[in-house]
Amino acid sequence: MNRSRRLAQLKRLVAMGSFRTQGELADALAGAGWAVTQSSISRDIRALGLEKVDGIYSVPADLDLAANPEAEIALPWGHIRSLVSAGETMLVLRTAVATAQQVAAAIDAASWDGVAGTIAGDDTVFIATTSRLAADEASQRLRAYAGLVDRRRN
Question: What is the pTM of this model?
Answer without folding.
Answer: 0.54
